[in-house]
Amino acid sequence: MNVLLIEDEPDMVALLEATLTPAGFEVHAERSGDAVELLLERYDPQVVIVDVMLFGSRVDGFEVVRRIRSVSQHADTLVVVLTALQGEAYVRQAHEAGADLYLSKPFSPLELLEQLERAELLTD
Fold first, then answer.
1. Domains of the chain
2. Can you give the pTM of this predicted structure?
3. 29 forms bridges with which residues in the sheet?
4. Strands of 78-83's sheet, edge to edge?
5. Residue 68 Ramachandran class (φ > 0 left, ψ -120 to 50 alpha, else beta)
6. Strands (DSSP E) along the chain, which ranges?
7. pLDDT (tens digit, 9 = 90+) per residue, 65-98?
């Protein structure tokens, strides 16, 4: 199962790859969401995990989520916002953009796996 990870911090990419790969996911990491439509076409992910603050990117994670939702083939793609931004306003903004899940950094990798399991994307 393909995961598109849009994250600009190498340590976070390494943590997520170490968490998701043993669980059966193939992780494709990108530092920017500027061309998310092309990335969706290239990787055809079932899950997209996106940070909100993407340094060096022309768009933030909320815009990336909106762009994902504008691609009809990815209407059912699970979109997870994983960010250091905390607070109800950010959670609301993520859900209004079309995110399915919102996790705040620091986060538990086990919590992410549990959320994917609840979404029926992870099997024993």
1. 2-118 (3.40.50.2300)
2. 0.94
3. 5
4. 26-30, 2-6, 47-50, 78-83, 101-104
5. alpha
6. 2-6, 26-30, 47-50, 78-83, 101-104
7. 999 999 989 888 999 999 999 999 999 999 999 9
